[in-house]
């Protein structure tokens, strides 16, 4: 069965940085790629902030959480990032064209044994698999935001994914403390987002129609269901750039929600928890 030692994470944004940090925390050799030196500098800041959170929130992290950052190799050289990778985890923007272009380069450069995983939350892996040139070694591995706390990893193959590759990725997910959720067939949104997205869309429509403010909507959801977060709190965690992108491609009400996000928040540099301000204000991490 395929074994993994060196992991390349492509895209070190909000979730990519969590995947890279957490996988290094669990003992794997990590190289993390982003598009240019400025993006790499931002990634370094994200990773340092994650070390602080692990110190506070993860029981067995301790002072060594800061050492993890130094163990992660950051690079803007894509060919170098994948040159010795056993497993590539892509966490690039949610655009088919971007992901296909990235995988076409990676498929040419990575070793013959490399397995390719996309963290896409909405694109079926079969829409991307041919771009690698090795569809039998391609599948989706979807993490949730705040991976150390919401520790599921949804594994979704295609009809062409080698069963050995699939089983190895399931085992890898378990080895980093995730609960592997094995998907029987392709489903955009997997399990989590198939349940979550309708809730977030409904919340967006309530705001777009001026029915209730975000805090009121969140109060109803938390008090009425016992949930830890309301939908607007979830959107802040996910990130308002991502929320805007998804809503922009929806129906008329969703596009209106996207417009509100842009005008009220994004145009002011407010992107959610990461920036300290979104629908709510957050203390510095």
Total of DSSP H or I helical runs spanning 4+ residues: 11
Which strands sit side by side, in order, in the main sheet? Answer: 3-2-1-4-5-6-7-8
CATH architecture of the largest domain: 3-Layer(aba) Sandwich
Average pLDDT level: 95
Distance between the termini: 40 Å
CATH class of the largest domain: Alpha Beta
N-to-C SSE string, H for helix and E for strand: EHEHHEHEHEEEHEHHHHH
Number of E-state strands: 8
CATH topology of the largest domain: Rossmann fold
Q: Percent range for helical residues?
A: 40-55%
The shape is: globular
What kind of sheet is the major sheet? 8 strands, mixed
Query: What fraction of the residues are assigned to beta strands by DSSP?
Result: 5-15%
Structural class by SSE content = alpha/beta
Low-confidence runs (pLDDT<50, min 5 residues)?
A: none
Output the CATH homologous superfamily of the largest domain. Answer: NAD(P)-binding Rossmann-like Domain
Radius of gyration, in angstroms, nearest whole number: 19 Å
Number of domains: 2
């Amino acid at each position: 069965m395929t074994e993994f030692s060196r992991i390349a994470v492509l895209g070190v944004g909000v979730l990519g940085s969590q995947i890279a940090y957490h996988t290094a925390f669990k003992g794997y050799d990590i190289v993390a790629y982003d598009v240019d030196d400025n993006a790499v500098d931002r990634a370094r800041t994200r990773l340092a902030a994650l070390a602080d959170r692990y110190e506070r929130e993860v029981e067995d992290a301790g002072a060594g959480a800061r050492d993890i950052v130094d163990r992660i190799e950051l690079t803007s050289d894509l060919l170098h990032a994948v040159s010795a990778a056993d497993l590539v985890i892509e966490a690039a923007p949610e655009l088919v064209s971007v992901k296909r272009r990235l995988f076409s380069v990676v498929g040419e450069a990575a070793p013959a044994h490399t397995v390719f995983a996309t963290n896409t939350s909405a694109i079926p892996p079969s829409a991307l698999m041919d771009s690698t040139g090795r569809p039998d070694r391609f599948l989706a591995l979807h993490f949730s935001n705040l991976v150390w706390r919401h520790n599921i990893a949804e594994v979704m193959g295609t009809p062409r994914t080698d069963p050995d590759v699939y089983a190895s990725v399931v085992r890898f997910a378990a080895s980093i403390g995730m609960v592997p959720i094995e998907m029987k067939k392709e489903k955009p949104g997997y399990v989590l987002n198939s349940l979550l997205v309708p809730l977030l869309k409904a919340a967006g429509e309530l705001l777009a129609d001026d029915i209730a403010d975000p805090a009121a909507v969140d109060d109803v959801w938390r008090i009425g269901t016992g949930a830890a977060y309301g939908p607007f709190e979830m959107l802040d965690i996910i990130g308002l750039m991502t929320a805007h992108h998804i809503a922009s491609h929806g129906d008329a009400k969703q596009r209106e929600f996207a417009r509100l996000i842009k005008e009220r928040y994004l145009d002011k540099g407010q992107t959610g928890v990461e920036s300290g301000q979104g629908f709510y204000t957050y203390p510095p991490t």
